[in-house]
Write a structure and sequence with these properties.
Helix 1 packs across helix 11 and helix 9 crosses helix 11. With about 425 residues, the chain is an alpha+beta fold. The radius of gyration is 23 Å and the shape is globular. The chain is built from eleven helices and 16 strands. The longest helix has 21 residues.
Length: about 425
């Protein structure tokens, strides 16, 4: 089969997975849900048809393994995630899993084995939508999962431990699910760019140099609820007004500091009635910068501003760090192999950083990581309008396949 056939198959499979959703009319696939089970079962069938052995680990990661020509042998990890954000596009995550799978399918079609094994991961949770803490799947593989997260509850009051059990996992066995690293060659992930750079350069793919660090913080302003008609303006402790002032302070700081991006993406006001002064407002804060020191400094400044606003408005502040990840440089050697693969296919090589987080952040604690970006229309991501072309997907297949062949040559391929 031609690479165009496999590119078309990937597009069709993304459409199929895009129908596995918790919500009618839009794609929302959270960790350890029935929609996630549908995705895992479907991808598992595709993996088995490609000659892979398949298992689901204790947190719900799907792992397909294509054995080496002989043993003992090293292992190369490929893949991405199968969960989504709310009202998502079809390609963020699944494109990386399916591109890796297509490379294995092409090997299987040729009855070819490499001097190393390939494991394709469909990670169970990268986005952190259900429990507001990202990289759950890849952290388990890397051995950095925080067992305290098992006590977190979702919007329905279901604990993470309970969700894992319902999904077929065992929360008590998670520490033993860590992947050994003594046989690993590294991890490589294909992902849509989620930005406009490749499109502006008219390039189908690009090599990622670094993955930007980020902080996720929960901020709550606690005031006093009261009647909207009877409490004078001068006597109010309005938590929503404090939150609004803080949100603008976040925007101002990020606009005035080069390289910094900061986002408030969620906000809830309680008790949430039109005729009641908001008593408690909780919002999310996402802060990112390639320079970890600058990012940490920005978080300190924002916390200081939040406390000043709370004091001035006579409300209290709760500032809770949910997650922090450092900036991760991609491995030089693997990145060079990706660049060489692109050059072999006669495309210009462009290197760029990722402002988004990826499973490679967690896996960098386990092994060397590399990433290949695929051009996406308008740089749009985390949006139903997310779009890639079949032609660019074909290039991604060829680049990843050539990357594997170069790696195989290093490992003794004749």
């Amino acid at each position: 089969m031609t690479v165009e056939f496999y590119a078309r198959t990937i597009m069709e499979r993304c459409d199929i997975l895009g129908n596995y959703s918790e919500e009618s009319g839009r794609l929302t696939r959270r960790f350890a849900t029935p929609a996630m089970r549908q995705a895992n079962e479907t991808v598992e069938a595709w993996m088995r048809a490609a000659g892979m052995s398949v298992r689901q680990d204790q947190i719900g990661n799907l792992v397909g393994r294509y054995e080496a020509r002989s043993s003992p042998a090293k292992t190369m990890l490929l893949g991405s995630h199968l969960d989504s954000v709310r009202d998502a596009g079809k390609y963020d995550g699944p494109l990386g899993v399916l591109t890796a799978l297509a490379c294995v399918e092409r090997l299987h079609e040729r009855q070819q084995r490499l001097p190393f094994a390939i494991e394709v991961f469909g990670f169970a949770d990268e986005e952190g939508l259900r429990y507001h803490t990202a990289y759950l799947g890849s952290k388990v593989v890397a051995g950095t999962f925080d067992p305290n997260a098992l006590h977190l509850t979702d919007s329905d009051g279901i604990s993470m431990a309970e969700a894992i059990r319902t999904f077929g996992g065992d929360p008590d066995a998670i520490p033993g699910a860590r992947r050994r690293n003594d046989d690993l060659l590294g991890y490589c992930e294909v992902h849509i760019e989620q930005g406009p750079v490749l499109e502006s350069l008219n390039l189908p793919v690009g090599v990622v140099s670094t993955i930007t660090g980020q902080n996720r913080i929960s901020v709550s302003f606690v005031g006093e609820a009261g009647h909207a008609g009877t409490v004078p303006m001068s006597m109010r402790h309005d938590s929503l007004c404090a939150a609004a002032e803080f949100i603008l302070a976040v925007e101002t700081l990020a606009r005035n500091q080069p390289g910094l991006v900061a986002t408030v993406g969620q906000i809830t006001a309680q008790p949430g009635a039109s005729n009641v002064i908001p008593g408690v407002v909780t919002l999310s804060l996402d802060v990112r910068h390639q320079d970890d020191a600058m990012r940490e400094q920005a978080c300190r400044r924002l916390e200081e501003q939040a406390r000043q606003i709370a004091t001035a408005r006579q409300v209290s502040l709760k500032w809770q760090h949910l997650q922090e990840s450092r900036t991760v440089p991609c491995a030089t050697h693997l990145t060079q192999l990706l660049a060489q693969a692109i050059e072999t296919l006669k495309y210009p090589v462009h290197t760029l950083s990722s402002g988004a987080g990826h499973d490679g952040v967690a896996l960098s604690d386990l092994t060397s990581v590399a990433m290949l970006f695929v051009r996406c229309r308008g740089g749009v991501s985390h949006n139903p309008a997310e779009s890639v072309t079949r032609e660019d997907v074909a290039v991604a297949i060829e680049v990843l396949e050539q990357f594997l062949m170069l790696l195989a040559k290093e490992q003794g391929e004749s």
